[in-house]
Each structure stands twice: as structure tokens, then as C-alpha cells.
Amino acid sequence: MPISSKDLLHDEVASTVETTNEVETELSIHPDWKLPQEDIYSFQFLNIECSPLLPNQLSISGIKIEEPENNEGSWKRTVFIRHSMDKTIELKETTLALLDHHDQVIGRKQINLKEVGKLPPNSSRPWVIAFSQKELNVGEKPENGWKVVFQLKPSQRKHSLDLDEKWQKTLPSKDIEDLKSLVNRLERPKVSEVNLLGLKAATRENGDVQLIILIRNGSEKTVNLEKVPLVLEDATGDVLAKASFTPKDLKVKANTSKPWVFIFPQSMLIKESYSLDKWKVYMPKK
Q: Which of 138, 140, 150, 276 has the fewest Cβ atoms nearer than 10 Å?
């Protein structure tokens, strides 16, 4: 489960070359590891079996699990720590999660990966990660298909588009790409901030005013909006309508932006004559 190097290496500069060419990682043994040639051959073979990465990615590939000798011992996972940057990198403290074959979290560990050492460009380094009993949610050895992955906080991830399933099915692919591009260009919301960005306003044939609003969640938790009070101003800055909406299943995932449609019925409009060439929508202050 590769991640972008930008998500973890905030002070590192990834390659500026934009390409989708796959990168094969080369085996790199830690200088302090004194291994017999037979083990090195084994690691070389296992590394060749790993899937290639796209440029500027970090990934952890599992190799084997060693069971503890007693109930209080640690489960040792041998893994490859891999990256596809064209420069030497050094990892820092981060959180790793252990997933079972259903991708359910069965363990979590805070670890300083600086001990792994400096990783040469486009390299794959074997390493042993020990999960203590306190760091595991299970007592039995997981089945084949387990993974160790980088677990990023939502605030560490790139702010992204959260599109409702109905929108995914009905919106043209170009419109979806345009929305993604817009979200990428906008400055991300502050942590713990939820704000609105008006995308489109139009008067329908029956006189209702339809708004498409981008709801931007900068917090580290999913926001469930059961009530959405809105104030709409027209081109002159006058309040055109006020309403409190109760949308069904409006949940905006952590660190994402979700577009949503709100409709002000004609009966709620304060003015008969108005212009939406310019407009503004916001939540009223409490």
C-alpha cells in the first residue's frame, strides 16, 4: 500500500519530474547487518518479487512473521522498506499499522525509523519490526495476506475530493477531474475548520434557487452535518434567502471537500428581482 513521499517526508523535496514510469527498487542491506551470502540471495529474490513503485512513493512489503517464544514476547515482522525517490532519504518517527488479510487494523506501533539508516535512491531495505502484545489487538498469528503500512494522520494527507456515490455515477468524468483539480489548487482549510465555497448558483424554471456548494473539512474527523443553516446574498450584497437544511447522510470525511446541492424554494426568497452574477453563501454566526 504505497504512499506519496510528500505525505511523510515534509522537509524532503521529491523529484520534480512528472512521470508514471514504474520504478524497480534495488536491494540495500544496512551497513551494520552482517549476513551470510545465502541470506542476501534470499532477500534479492524476495525483492524481485515485490511490485514496482511509481516515482516518489514509499512502501512497506511484508516478508515473514516470527511468533514469540512466550505469551509476553513480541511478534517480529520482517519487511522491506522501499522508496522510489531519485535521492538518498532518511525516515523519522512515524506510526505503523498492522493489517490482516481483510485490511482490518490488528496492531499499531509508534516507531523511529531513523534506525533504518540512510536509504539510497530507489532502494529496498529489509528490516525487522517488533509488535509487542500491548501493540496488538489479536493474540493469534494473522493469516497470509497481512500488511504493515504507514498510518498517516488525516492532517498529513493531501486534502482531497470526497464525492458522494451518486455523484460518482452520474457526473461526467471531465467534471469530476475539474473538481479534483479545483480542490488541489485551493489552499487547504485550517485544522478543525469546516467552511463553504460556493461553486454554482442558478434559478430553476419553477423559481427555486439551486446552489452547488463545496463543503471543506479541515479536521481529522469525519463531520456529520445533520443541520446546515445557510444565508444567501445576491449580487448587490442583499440577503436573498435564509434557510436551515436537514440533508440526508451528509458526511464529509476527514481532510476532504465534498460538493452538495442545496435548493432554496421560491417561497423563501426575500426579493422578487435579483441577480446571481455575483453571490455569496455562508453559515450564520451563532
A: 140
* 147 and 192 co-located in one domain: no
What percent helix, strand, coil does the chain show, rounded to 5? 15, 35, 45
Among 152, 168, 198, residue at a domain's last position: 152
Q: What is the pLDDT of residues 82-106, one digit of tens each?
A: 999 999 999 988 889 888 887 778 8
Domain with 258 in it: 160-282
179 with 146, same domain? no
Q: What secondary structure letter does DSSP report for 79?
A: E
Listed in sequence order, the residues at least 6 apart from 278 whose beta carbon sits closer than 8 Å to its beta carbon are 234, 235
Pairing of the two strands 57-66 and 105-112: unpaired
Q: What is the CATH number of the domain that holds 218?
A: 2.60.40
- pLDDT for the residue numbered 220: 74
On whether both 213 and 143 belong to a single domain, the answer is no
Question: What sign does the dihedral 12-16-17-18 (CA atoms) show?
Answer: positive
232-267 b/e with 16+ CB inside 10 Å = b? bbbeeeeebbeeeeeeeebebebbbbbbbebebeee
Comparing 13 with 183, the larger pLDDT belongs to: 183
- What's the CA gap between 48 and 123, in Å, rounded? 12
Clarify whether residues 120 and 191 are in a common domain: no
Q: Determine contact, residues 57/2, Cβ cutoff 8 Å.
A: yes
- pLDDT over 70 (residue 71): no
Q: Which amino acid is at 138?
A: V
The C-alpha cell that represents 15 in the structure block: 523529484
Residues 143 and 38 both lie in one domain? yes
pLDDT in tens, 190-201: 877 899 999 999
